[in-house]
Write a structure and sequence with these properties.
alpha/beta, Rossmann fold, CBS-domain, 5-stranded parallel beta sheet
Length: 300
């Protein structure tokens, strides 16, 4: 299973600390908080694995705090957070020993990915090694799940909360998964509900049926399409999601290589895979999770 990584989050904005702690804990991290550089250096005694450090703070700023941390623990990876107007300052921090930097607002998935990268690089003897699928996946408890007897109306309301951009503070954001895993009562996977499923649901049967050879030449008038989409959605508002969902995504073992995940996505035309560990569903790996791996490889 994935290791529990202890993260020290250093920022002088209380709301940012509180919100980020909740988001990181939900992703499986153990999060320590510090409101200043002075408090952060004192909390080094709690042996964090990775530090996320804001550059602009009162008292000891991020640069001073970074230098003090590196003096005490030279191998401790520190990720700097900065605004767009302080890019030069962030790049200077790399010369002072920072592992990496991110600009605000910061996507929580990208921040989590960089924290894991920093942790694994620190603990890897002999250099770079690719992580396995379980080190990249979104854990099941973080994904949106429902049973098949939920209505389309209920599912859409939940899905909106899941995939809509959530600006938790002015400096961190969270993006959702744009799909719902449909589970049975025994925690087995029945299928998946995607936005594409909802679009197909709205179409009348004759638009989805095989067309005659002359169909390509048929031109529908604007009146033909009028209100058709709204009518299609409203007609299925109380339909159970089990009746419109897609089959479950392909399953990949959590110990598999990420190249195997990429192969399955490309050859199976799948944007996401279900991850299993010891025969049980453990999470989902999405194409954007592999994108963050691509970015890391090119940055190394």
């Amino acid at each position: 299973m994935r290791e529990t990584i202890k993260v020290l989050m250093v920022d002088d904005e209380k709301q940012f600390r509180t919100t980020t702690e909740k988001l990181l804990n939900r992703k499986g991290f153990q999060t320590l908080l510090a409101a200043s550089g002075e408090e952060a250096t004192a909390k080094l005694s709690e042996q964090p694995d990775v530090v996320v450090l804001d550059i602009k703070m009162g008292g000891m700023d991020g640069h001073q705090t970074l230098r003090e941390m590196k003096a005490q623990h030279p191998d401790l990876p520190v990720i700097m957070l900065t605004g767009h107007g302080a890019m030069r300052s962030a790049k200077e921090a790399l010369g002072e020993g920072a592992y990496d930097y991110l600009t605000k607002p910061c996507d929580i998935d990208l921040l989590a990915s960089k924290i894991r990268d920093a942790y694994h690089q620190r603990n890897l003897a002999g250099g770079f090694e690719e992580r396995r699928v379980m080190g990249v996946m979104v854990p099941l408890q973080e994904y949106t799940t429902m049973t098949g007897d939920v209505t389309i109306r209920e599912a859409v309301a939940t899905l909106k909360e899941s995939f809509a951009l959530k600006t938790a503070t002015s400096r961190i954001m969270e993006t959702g998964h744009r799909s719902i895993l449909v589970m049975d009562n025994q925690e087995g996977l029945e299928g998946i509900l995607t936005i594409c499923d909802l679009l197909e649901m709205a179409m009348p049967p004759y638009l989805k049926a095989p067309k005659p050879s002359t169909a390509d030449s048929i031109q529908y008038s604007p009146m033909f399409w009028k209100n058709m989409f709204s009518q299609g959605i409203l007609a299925h508002a109380e339909t159970k999601i089990r009746d419109v969902m897609s089959p479950p995504p392909p399953v990949i073992d959590g110990t598999a290589s990420i190249m195997e995940a990429a192969y399955m996505m490309v050859n199976g035309n799948a944007r996401r895979l279900v991850v299993a560990l010891s025969g049980r569903i453990a999470g989902v790996i999405r194409e954007q999770d592999l994108f963050f791996v691509i970015e890391r490889i090119l940055r190394a």
